[in-house]
Write a structure and sequence with these properties.
The chain is α+β, with helices and mostly antiparallel strands. It is 24% helix and 32% strand. It has one helix at residues 3-27, and strands spanning 45-49, 55-61, 67-72, 78-82, 90-94, 99-103.
């Protein structure tokens, strides 16, 4: 192919794709879709589990009705608990339950 033929093929391809996109836009107009406003999700507990199914984080209510967020380290050696209802709002504990750090 000569240089002129290559340029003609490129120009024809470009113009054809532009015309094709304009025509397809006119033929297949997409109307906007809006999701309905959700009513919410109700649950007593939400768990985040790792690939093995081990719970690593949880948000929920304890048996006495206090709300809390619990985050557990990968190896399970430390747990961070947040509970505005409890006597201690933020607590970092080790595996045995010993408090490593806390804040009122």
């Amino acid at each position: 192919m000569t240089r002129l033929q290559v340029m003609l093929v490129l120009a024809t391809t470009f113009i054809g794709s532009m015309i094709g996109s304009i025509v397809s836009e006119r033929l297949f107009q997409v109307r906007e879709v809006h999701a309905q406003k959700p009513n919410g999700v109700n649950a007593e507990e939400f768990l985040l589990v790792d690939q093995t199914g081990k719970a690593r984080a949880g948000l929920g209510l304890d048996p006495s009705g206090e709300v809390g967020l619990v985050l557990t380290s990968r190896d399970g050696s430390r747990t961070l608990a947040l509970s505005p209802d409890g006597p201690v709002a933020v607590k970092l504990t080790d595996r045995s339950g010993k408090i490593l750090w806390s804040a009122p």
